[in-house]
Amino acid sequence: MPHLRTFLGAPREAAYTLLAPFPGFVCGVVLLALLAVSLVTSVTQVGLVLLVGVLAVARGTGALHRGLLRGLLGEDIAAPPAREKAPGLVGSLRAALTDSDGWRAAAFTIAYAPVGVVLFVVSVGMRLYGLAGLTYPLWWRAVEEDGRRGVGLAGDVRMDSWLAALLTAAAGLAVLAFAAWSTRGLLTLVVRPMARALLGRGRLDDRVHVLEETRALAVQDSAATLRRIERDLHDGAQSRLIAVAMALAGARDQLARAPGDAPELARGRELVDSALGNSRTAIAELRDLVRGIHPPALNDGLDVALETLATRAGLPVTTRVDLPVRPPEAIASIAYFCAAELVANAARHAGASRAEIEAYEQGGVLRLVVRDDGHGGARMRTGRGVGGTGLTGLAERVSTVDGRLLIDSPDGGPTTVTAELPLGQESPACAS
């Protein structure tokens, strides 16, 4: 079998060179013609729509080639990610025309047309020629031209003897070996590298995929660490501070009932009162810190957390939440802190008399909209030393999950701020 493969090649390689070139050539020629027509007519809407269709067909043709490569050659090429959907007709058209994976698939399809022809000629044509030579001793006596047996070559040279037949068989065997070697060389040096470069994920896509996986792991670890810190602070340090405060309160009561007005006794009462006040302040600050790490209301869902936030705001706030699926914890935390900051800004800085919070899912994105009837003029500050505060800090927090913050706040109001948060991403920034 190894010796037979040397001359005939691997069966799967032979099957690929027999099955893939014809559809590859047809698809390449058709796609090239459609691409030329669409580019010429791209100044019109019909041409742009046709170009979008060409790229979609190219993606489908790329999937066909990946299937043939995987099934016949064992070349497993990961499919590129699906094209991202953009809102609006113009956005969808722009996203389709800038689909780099579609353009790379089109480039492969067009480039494969001549490569497939060469591959077919080398693999199939040369093998047929070699088999004819290899079997020449079996049928040369059956061929008769001008009363002479055998096949004639240039001039008067004829292969009409057993010696010539055997030499022809040896030449046919060499042609078969060369065809197998050439086929494997074309597949190894041309087809496989071209397919990996144009049909799979681009280098940037691979890098982005790795970074997304790394960030997801970091998010999980960060979220677990923050929740552990929250529990430790709530169950450990806060409980001990409460116990200290209760002990100090008891000591103050004992000192208040103690007889006498000695200076030392009065000084002791002052020290206990001061320590009790400091412990209560520390408890309040610790509770704020724990709520800042993870608001307890989020344990019951973002809708409950936003309703709780509305009841504690310094102005009337209405909420509308339409989330069929509970968002990831990190996304929900970002949305909550954005809503809390925006409502606080409306109450303290915008002079608003009412506000509205709306949260809903659209196209795999959580959209948090906060409106108020204040005097407007909200702007993100830029420059050194302003990051992490106000609207700038919210924009930075939202950007950590590839989201964005949209601000519509003309002078005189009203103000509408929209946070768009992809539901497929998580970030530790939500609780930082």
Automatic annotation (TrEMBL):
CDD domains given in the database record: HATPase_UhpB-NarQ-NarX-like
Keywords: ATP-binding, Kinase, Membrane, Nucleotide-binding, Phosphoprotein, Transferase, Transmembrane, Transmembrane helix, Two-component regulatory system
Stretches assigned to the Putative sensor domain: 19-199
Signal transduction histidine kinase subgroup 3 dimerisation and phosphoacceptor domain residues: 227-298
Parts forming coiled coils: none
Region span, Disordered: 408-432
Catalytic activity: ATP + protein L-histidine = ADP + protein N-phospho-L-histidine
Pfam families attached to this UniProt entry: HATPase_c, HisKA_3, Sensor
Record bears the keyword tRNA processing: no
Transmembrane segments: 14-37, 43-62, 110-130, 162-182
Domain Histidine kinase/HSP90-like ATPase: 339-424
EC numbers on record: 2.7.13.3
Superkingdom per UniProt: Bacteria
SUPFAM superfamilies in alphabetical order: ATPase domain of HSP90 chaperone/DNA topoisomerase II/histidine kinase
PANTHER family found in the cross-reference section: NITRATE/NITRITE SENSOR PROTEIN NARX-RELATED (PTHR24421), NITRATE_NITRITE SENSOR PROTEIN NARQ (PTHR24421:SF10)
Protein name: histidine kinase
Taxon lineage: Bacteria, Bacillati, Actinomycetota, Actinomycetes, Kitasatosporales
